[in-house]
Design goal:
globular; single chain; Rossmann fold; 13 strands; alpha/beta; four-stranded antiparallel beta sheet; Glutathione S-transferase Yfyf (Class Pi), Chain A, domain 2
């Protein structure tokens, strides 16, 4: 599906609503109030579609005075974020370049989301580990030495499990990432995990320093994932174009991996991805998404997409119509 329209007409808002309606949150902001029209006090996103040949209906209700609510096939979910455990949606927006050019926290967050999608039973592991680190940090600052002990055990155990799970997820993604990156002109692309499993001995050795600083200095909350092409760290030595291709390669590899693992193609949302690609790479990207599941692409001009879309929509302020 290709969505066209002039800049500022609402193409990204349409894409954003699909993400909210399938994942329960916006890819652009974590402030739900920003999703509600100015002057209004509520908003609703309702979607109807097919997943693996089975009908799916979702709804997300936003309010300035109440908690966000989500439904799936008429049933109220415990939280809006629970949608992401049921439906798979991946998105590219220009600010996703932070995965490559941003700090380690952006990459950890991206690969932890990948971990949750690949291993739903371990989806809570990053949050459980973060909670244990927070409790240990509080104990380091305000409690007796004995109070730190149980949290040190938790940080060591959960941290080791998290590193193992992250490495397993990267190992699954790496071959597809290298292949898709190679198609787009990034030679010898690799994912390299930087960090080791924390141990109780390491945490104990750092205890005096941690007490002085009031923070835990060992563990996967400090790790990073290096994105490399031809031996170059793309964060430091990749051009803007190469960083863009890297994010695209990650998403394309993840789409294929999830479809193989889960048996259903994720919904892929590509916002303004064509404008900065040369014609050759546009053709490669178009052929790749055409061979997969449903993809929504936004562009200012239909000529940017070098294949005929299954559906062409035109957006003007407040209106979406078939073109």
């Amino acid at each position: 599906m290709l969505v066209t329209g002039a800049n500022g007409t609402g193409k990204t808002n349409l894409l954003e609503s699909l993400h909210v309606g399938t994942q329960g949150f916006s890819p652009r902001t974590r402030r739900d109030g920003e999703l509600i029209r100015f002057g209004a006090d509520a908003a609703t996103v309702s979607l109807r579609g097919m997943r693996g040949g089975i009908g799916v209906e979702t709804g997300v209700a936003l309010s300035t005075s109440a908690a966000k609510r989500a439904t799936l096939n008429g049933a109220t979910l415990p939280s809006a974020d629970a949608l992401r455990r049921e439906l798979q949606t991946l998105v590219f927006t220009p600010d996703r370049l932070a995965i490559v050019k941003g700090g380690p926290a952006a990459r950890r967050a991206y690969f932890d989301r990948l971990l949750g999608r690949l291993q739903p039973a371990r989806a809570s592991l990053p949050a459980d580990y973060a909670a244990a680190v927070a409790q240990r940090n509080a104990a380091l600052r305000f409690s007796s030495p004995d109070a730190v002990e149980p949290w040190t055990d938790q940080v060591a155990a959960l941290g080791a499990a998290l590193v193992q799970s992250r490495r397993a997820a990267l190992d699954m993604l790496a071959p597809g990432f290298a292949e898709r990156a190679g198609e787009l002109g990034l030679e010898d692309a690799e994912l390299a995990y930087e960090g080791e499993e924390p141990t109780r001995a390491q945490l104990d050795a750092a205890l005096d320093r941690d007490r002085e600083r009031g923070t835990t200095s060992v563990g996967p909350h400090l790790h990073d994932v290096r994105l490399v092409a031809a031996g170059r760290d793309l964060r430091s030595f990749g051009s803007q174009g190469e960083q863009r291709l890297t994010v695209l390669s990650l998403l394309l590899a993840e789409v294929e991996l999830l479809s193989a693992e889960r048996g259903v193609w994720p919904l892929l949302l590509l916002d303004d991805v064509l404008s900065e690609l040369d014609p050759g790479r546009r053709r490669i990207l178009a052929a790749r998404v055409a061979a997969g599941g449903q993809t929504l692409v936004t562009a200012t001009d239909a000529s940017f997409l070098p294949i005929e879309p299954e559906q062409l929509l035109d957006v003007t302020p407040g209106t979406v119509r078939a073109s």
